[in-house]
TrEMBL record, chain A:
UniProt subcellular location: Cell membrane
NCBIfam families tied to this protein: CtaD_CoxA
Class of this enzyme: translocase
Assigned GO CC terms: plasma membrane
Chain segments annotated as coiled-coil in the UniProt record: none
Keyword Flavoprotein: no
Similarity comment text for this entry: Belongs to the heme-copper respiratory oxidase family.
EC number(s) given by UniProt: 7.1.1.9
Listed transmembrane segments: 27-48, 68-89, 110-129, 153-179, 191-217, 237-262, 274-295, 307-332, 344-365, 377-398, 419-441, 461-483, 554-572, 578-596
Keyword terms of this UniProt record: Cell membrane, Copper, Electron transport, Heme, Iron, Membrane, Metal-binding, Respiratory chain, Translocase, Transmembrane, Transmembrane helix, Transport
Record protein name field: Cytochrome c oxidase subunit 1
Organism of origin: Mesobacillus campisalis
TrEMBL record, chain B:
Subcellular localization(s) per the UniProt record: Cell membrane
Membrane topology field: Multi-pass membrane protein
Name this protein carries in UniProt: Cytochrome c oxidase subunit 2
Free-text comment on the cofactor: Binds a copper A center.
Alphabetical GO biological process terms: ATP synthesis coupled electron transport
Cofactor(s) it depends on: heme c; Cu cation
Organism phylogeny: Bacteria, Bacillati, Bacillota, Bacilli, Bacillales
Organism: Mesobacillus campisalis
Matching NCBIfam families: CoxB
Single Gene Ontology MF annotation: heme binding
EC number: 7.1.1.9
Domain Cytochrome c: 259-352
Domain Cytochrome oxidase subunit II transmembrane region profile: 21-117
Automatic annotation (TrEMBL), chain C:
Domain spans labelled Heme-copper oxidase subunit III family profile: 1-207
Protein's name in the database: Cytochrome B oxidoreductase
GO MF terms, alphabetically ordered: cytochrome-c oxidase activity
Organism field: Mesobacillus campisalis
CDD domains (alphabetical): Ubiquinol_oxidase_III
Pfam families, per database record: COX3 (PF00510)
This protein's record includes keyword Protein transport: no
GO biological process, one term: aerobic electron transport chain
Topological type in the membrane: Multi-pass membrane protein
Amino acid sequence: MSTYAQKKGVGAVIWDYLTTVDHKKIAILYLIAGGFFFLLGGLEAMFIRIQLAIPNNNFVSAGLYNEILTMHGTTMIFLAAMPLLFAFMNAVMPLQIGARDVAFPFLNSLGFWLFFFGGIFLNLSWFLGGAPDAGWTSYASLSLASEGHGIDFYALGLQIAGFGTLIGGINFLVTIINMRAPGMTYMRMPLFTWSTFVASALILFAFPPLTIGVFFLTFDRMFGANFFDHTMGGNTIIWEHLFWIFGHPEVYILILPSFGIFSEIFATFSRKRLFGYSSMVFATVLIGFLGFMVWAHHMFTTGLGPIANAIFAVATMAIAVPTGIKIFNWIFTMWGGSIKFTTPMLYAVAFIPSFVMGGVTGVMLGAAAADYQYHDTYFVVAHFHYVIVGGVVFALLAGTHFYWPKMFGTMLNELLGKITFWLFLIGFHLTFFIQHFLGLIGMPRRIFTFLPGQGLETGNLISTIGAFLMAVATIVLLVNIVITSVKNVKVGNDPWGDGRTLEWALPSPPPFYNFKQLPLVRGLDPYWIEKMNGNKEMTPAEPIGDIHMPNNSFIPFMISLGLFIAAFGVMYRVDHAWGLPVLIAGLAITFGSMMVRSIKDDHGYHIHKEDLLEDEDKGVKA
Amino acid sequence: MKRLAKWRLLPLFAVMALLAGCGEPFLSALQPAGEVAQLQFDLMLLSTAIMVGVIVIVTVLFIIAITRFRRKSENEIPKQVEGSHKLEIIWTAIPILLVFVLAIPTVAATFKLADVSPMDEKNEDGKTDALVVNVRANLYWWEFEYPNEEIVTSQDLIVPTDEKVYFNLIASDVKHSFWIPSVGGKMDTNTENINRFWLNFDDAAADEAGRIFYGKCAELCGPSHALMDFKVKALPRAEFDQWVTDMKAVTEPVQAETAEAQAGQEVFNNSCIGCHAVTPANTTPEAARMGPNLTDFGNRTLVAGILENNEENIKKWLKDPEAIKPGNKMTGKYDLSDEEIDAVTEYLMGLKVQE
Amino acid sequence: MQAEEKFTPETWPASPEKSTLEAKNKFLGFWLFLGGETVLFATLFATYLALKDKVPGTDHALAKDLFEMPLVFLMTMILLTSSLTSVYAMYHMKNFDFKKMQLWLGITVLLGFAFLGLEIYEFNHYVHEFHHTFTSSAFGSAFYTLVGFHGAHVAFGLAWFITLMVRNSKRGLDLYTAPKFYVASLYWHFIDVVWVFIFTVVYLMGMVG
């Protein structure tokens, strides 16, 4: 039997991925798509640094520079960092809680395809008359004044991708609440699962304001509305509020899962349970909560008045407390442990000082009166790159090395991994440390060039050199991935040897149904507990029985494709007669596909007990 | 309190002084040249000191942890510690205290910098005793209107030193942000409302910086955002008053003297005066002031905010403004021959209210 | 319990909307979705309040000129009643009485259409009598976006109910279809609650001035 284990042709594999609803395959899709956009965003970053290497440079023109800086920010946040985190959430979280899949496999696939088509739509702007050029924040007066369709691509692309993210968030929340294995109480969940949970809640409450803000922008630009046109009674400050009510939680949507990844790595490679687990959970929830209370610190110079500024300043500083708790807990997880410096652990260790640097400048920025000097300068650029690269990107690189064997069944080369690490670490600090001072000595952010004689030359040159080191590091990583994939040396369940959580109790990669029998969880770090008790695998919580699985579906692809087509219709409706029919056709595809989904019953299928037993006899790793 | 903080921060000061050496006195926020910048600089130092303290503690613990607890043998299983309430309370309580130490001066400074009450205290003429400047930010130039003095100038902000100068800030097209780094932090110029704040220009520091500070736009506003600079001439009060008097003396466009300049004035009157005024009175409505006021153009420090003010640069700018400031609103508004540009340049160079 | 299993009123469980894992997931997921929708509408309300009566000239109609109590009150009553009739429908669903459920759902849908018709009449009235349109002012944009978003939710809810009623008219209730009806009725209640806020914030507060 075991037809699912047979070799397939290339076409069949592609079709399988286009229609898959398996969280592990969707994770791989997120990893590939997110990785692609990460390279794209990185390329844009290199253009920025080359342009700013010397004063009065004309490597790119002023208008093109604004497009590049906008797309760099937008791509990195929405199309690289978040999807890559979603890759790990998909790959690992269901395994960590002992689930066979996420709660809504169909929606999981829909979420991916919406993100993918949104991202592609946004990037097609490069070829269709110019990319958006008002910054990733796209402040309303400038985004309304911007000519061409660039901002339209931004608004519609983000709208589509944003729906995907929202769906993903709800899916993870329900999965964590409803699908935990027997014994997996909330306070036994691994920290990565906890941080996925909190980040998903943030997505649920932070994305609607963005959705609405982007709708307003779309209506103003494409349907003649006046939300942001002050001559018609509108108000651009509304956009700033909506954007940051979304934008600040967004930062935590990125950083909390990164904290989660590091928490797993610290515990694993220190061979020690996480120090102060309950306070870590508490701190995660508290950071998520406070994340909604501080958005106006991005608007200290907007003129909200001293009372608002003072309140938001103090609230911002308060976030330092739970973040500090986390830092100390990580250090004390290593304290008294048995630390092994694998590549993931190197990133985790380097993350502490890097992130602390970004954290303390965050508190400095929170001091409203002083922020009037920092705001919109390279000091801010340095700060958020310390947080997002030193926190999130380090976590993504660490996660890539850490979870690669679980996702692909083979280990990335450790030597190349360490080379990547050192190049990236040095390049990162070289690029961004100096930028704090560039800001303080008078360099505003988002400038396409600077003039000689203002004291800005040396710092910018150093920064550019650092950026090249990071680029080389990324190339080494790609080489590593290629070499590893070609060699494809298979590894067992727990390739690092120190796995603590449920995912390491499964084969690498796990069979498509994950757990033949749901495991019984007896405490925090359940696999470690079993190992310490001399068990090779988890104790099952149920007898072997039929497993209910969802069917693959092409509908998510079609729903997303419909919106993708409709977006072109909305945008070109004002210029061309064919716009409206295309809009209608696109929406017809989307709603038609949704109708098919709701009318056609899809009960899924069962893997029968006999097949599972047969697999076991043959030792098949499906 | 302030003095105590400074004393404790001596080593930090040394580092700061070193770094300040990198910046320029006319541009760097690390070389404060006024009360506001000084207040902000002190706050920076206080926060930096606290943060450096935090970094030191974390680094020490971190280095001990990663050096002492390396894995020695593959078989060792460390004790599985759950946590420590005592430690956790310590590293919750101490940061809370530190936050308080920083929060109190922050709140005080935030309110102090927002105090613009003298702007509302009108005397019997309906004017304020304090000097007020209305800043209007445009793609990519700045207009400075002195409502009490009833004059308008552009690009070069002229202010008296050692007194509080109050600003009304607004943008006429898209959002910009008004920033003179060495004198104080920035404030946005929104499109729909007037923001207000104050600055104080220190005379000694102004003297050291050559009487000129650099101002910048700090909010992305389009292709030439990077080039939307302005200059601040900080003069002693008497010189400032003299400048105001001289400006107010110009009630009619000044007649050019040389023949070429006269030809230039004619061209200017035909092609340029629709946007650019050459008298400083603020009686024209804002919407009609479409380009920078050129009354005192000959005394400008820079052309277009970025080029040295000389004949060659003016011609370059007039010939192809797009090449110098992409996206500016002057490109394509006029069609002048080379001879006409030469003549206009001659005329413009002569527009000076003071010698 | 299997989703496709056939039931009688005796074997029908007490909470058919969450008797299988799929149904439980759907139930919880939908509540969370409504949480997100709440934030969505909260954002629209906040924007509306910020832009209320923000018009470019003195000749534009303001909230106090536009709204008329009788019409809005009638719309409110119709929608509130439709919420009640959907409760009846769910009551019969829990009692495994498919016919009566369909009947009450049918009444709900009719009331929904009545509401939607009145809303279209209302918008038409504002546009033609007062020249208060989506593009005439920021107030207009905010008003039509908030109330229109609600209206679009009503329209979607109606389409949803009708699809469910037609699709399941032959096969009746089981543990696969019951959660679908239940979730749709949850959505309908949510729409109703949003309207109560619109009635208060937009219309009542608008008429006060």
